[in-house]
Write a structure and sequence with these properties.
The protein is an alpha+beta fold. The protein contains 3 helices and 7 strands, in the order E-H-H-E-E-E-E-E-E-H. A 7-stranded antiparallel β-sheet has the order 1-7-6-5-4-3-2. It is globular, with a radius of gyration of 15 Å. The mean pLDDT is 91.
Length: 145
């Protein structure tokens, strides 16, 4: 299996608050440019077996992944098919308490080793995308405080 992509952002709130915003309020902060085309809302059900999906203005549901594991407020793991193609990936989001807030750590990896060299190319896109997504997440936490 190829090496995962790691990203993190520090936020000035509790792990509980960061977890709840990441999951229950994902529709309010997830960047429009990182949603499926025509998506008007995003949803992430924070329970094992829960769905990660978007809804289009037509009412069509776009399945983006499935929640694999939840340990609230420390960890959330879900499958994800970014862009709806290229193979399933696995995202682990850890919410680590620190004296002045929380570090939100992302580990994004291929879900199956069959992706091989394709993973290397996808990581280049995911790096920039996670920078954008985590910046918007951190800004939303500041604005909603």
């Amino acid at each position: 299996m190829n090496m995962p992509l790691f990203k993190e952002v520090r936020v000035a709130c509790s792990p509980e608050h960061a977890f709840d915003v990441f999951t229950a309020r994902i529709d309010l902060w997830w960047p429009a440019g990182h949603r499926p085309r025509g998506a008007t809302s995003m949803h992430l059900e924070p329970r094992a077996g829960g769905a990660f999906y978007a809804m289009r203005e037509t009412g069509e549901r776009v399945d983006l992944g499935t929640v694999v594991e939840v340990t609230r407020p420390e960890r959330l793991t879900y499958t994800w098919i970014p862009g709806g193609s290229g193979g399933e990936t696995l995202v682990e989001v850890a919410f680590v308490a620190e004296p002045d807030g929380t570090v939100v750590r992302i580990a994004h990896r291929e879900a199956e080793s069959r992706l091989g060299e394709q993973w290397t190319e996808r990581v280049k896109i995911f790096e920039k995308s996670w920078d954008d997504v985590l910046d918007v997440f951190a800004d939303y936490l500041i604005e909603s405080a």
